[in-house]
């Protein structure tokens, strides 16, 4: 048998993977995205990661809906919808992800809407700081049609799945006692360590935020101009070789031709191969420590649901080391 390939230089062991399945849809208004983890698992994802890619998988066997954490009442706060529910879920998820990451495991989280990244990224950021030392900061690659960096004040919809990056970078903050007051400094990431790929539906207020903070972003315009190969060279060059990477992949980054069954589909997106290529390149760095796959909603499209799930499985496999040859 071949010697196992190096999966990530920042993991304690070469092949340990913590899997967290999050059936939560409260960061936006359309039901169904909570069914994605089960659809992905039923399509054989776990067996493929174990048998084909040789991961030892730590999975508690449940899709977490966190119903026990749901507040009896959840009125809007700073215009945010379901603020206490999203806060409670992400705070708990942050602990689950942290528990895997501090053991030196790769952490794979299957969402759920993109608000759950408040939990996943805060969890890995804290664990990486503790494991590698205070000067060592994690980078985030956010692959998405949207920037998800609205503050509660710039958001027009109030849906928190459009705000996770603002809370994770500290551009949006809350005090102790407010819903997102639990997010500590050691759980945040710097705007300088954030890279976007695939953007094409960015709100006016978000464009201002991206410009004012000098945030590195490769839109579909950049993909068209340079090709995905050059874009990945530039994106990974910005991050540097010796930095752990958390990849947060929103399936709506793909064009609806390949991933139609998602809550906020936008035409003019990445091809399936471009999405896979991004995941392959990030894997090849040997620096990937965590992956989120979010916003697959199997209930929206009768025809397209299966292919959207298949696209999601493909992205995960590529990010975890699958290769064409
Ligand atoms: Mn998103």
Structure description:
This protein is of the alpha/beta class. The protein has a single domain (16-319), classed as 3-Layer(aba) Sandwich (Arginase, Chain A), CATH 3.40.800. The chain contains 10 helices and 8 strands. Strands 2-1-3-8-7-4-5-6 form an 8-stranded parallel β-sheet, sandwiched between helices. α7 (220-226) crosses α8 (228-239). It is globular. The mean pLDDT is 95. Manganese (II) ion binds next to loops.
Quick description:
This protein is α/β, with parallel strands linked by helices and 325 residues long. 35% of the residues lie in helices and 15% in strands.
The low-confidence runs, each spanning 5 or more residues with pLDDT under 50, are none
What is the CA-CA span between the terminal residues?
17 Å
**Which sheet architecture does the biggest sheet show?**
8 strands, parallel
Query: Which architecture would the CATH scheme give at its second level?
Result: 3-Layer(aba) Sandwich
- Rg (CA only): 18 Å
Question: How much of the residues is beta strand, in percent?
Answer: 15-25%
Q: Could you estimate the helical fraction of the residues in percent?
A: 25-40%
CATH topology: Arginase, Chain A
Q: Report the order of strands and helices.
A: EHHEHEHEHEHEHHEHEH
- Structural class determined from secondary elements: alpha/beta
Q: Quick one: overall form?
A: globular
Number of helices: 10
User: What small-molecule ligands were found?
Assistant: manganese (II) ion
CATH class: Alpha Beta
């Amino acid at each position: 048998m071949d010697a196992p390939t190096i999966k990530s230089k920042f993991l304690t062991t070469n092949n340990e993977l913590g899997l967290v399945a999050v059936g939560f849809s409260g960061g936006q208004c359309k039901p169904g995205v909570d069914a994605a983890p089960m659809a992905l698992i039923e399509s054989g994802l776990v067996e493929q990661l174990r048998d084909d890619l040789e991961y030892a998988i730590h999975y508690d066997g449940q899709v977490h809906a966190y119903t026990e954490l749901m507040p009896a009442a959840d009125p809007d706060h700073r215009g945010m919808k379901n603020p206490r529910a999203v806060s409670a879920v992400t705070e708990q998820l942050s602990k689950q992800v942290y528990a895997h990451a501090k053991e030196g495991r790769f952490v794979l989280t299957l969402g759920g809407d993109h608000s759950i990244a408040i939990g996943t990224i805060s969890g890995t950021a804290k664990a990486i700081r503790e494991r590698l030392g205070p000067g060592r900061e994690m980078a985030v690659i956010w692959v998405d049609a949207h920037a998800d960096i609205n503050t509660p004040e710039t958001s027009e919809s109030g849906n928190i799945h459009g705000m996770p990056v603002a809370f994770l970078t500290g551009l949006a903050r809350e005090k102790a006692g407010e819903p997102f007051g639990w997010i500590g400094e050691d759980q945040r990431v710097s705007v300088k360590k954030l890279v976007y790929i695939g953007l094409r539906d960015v709100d006016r207020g978000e464009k201002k935020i991206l410009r004012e903070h000098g945030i590195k972003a490769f839109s579909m315009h950049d993909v068209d101009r340079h090709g995905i190969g050059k874009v990945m060279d530039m994106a990974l060059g910005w991050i540097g070789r010796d930095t752990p990477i958390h990849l947060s992949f929103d399936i709506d980054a793909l064009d609806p031709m390949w991933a139609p069954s998602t809550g906020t589909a936008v035409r003019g997106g990445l091809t399936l191969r471009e999405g896979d290529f991004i995941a392959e390149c990030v894997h090849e760095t040997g620096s990937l420590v965590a992956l989120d796959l979010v916003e697959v909603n199997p209930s929206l499209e009768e025809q397209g649901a299966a292919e959207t799930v298949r696209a999601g499985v493909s992205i995960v496999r590529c990010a975890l080391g699958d290769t064409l040859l």
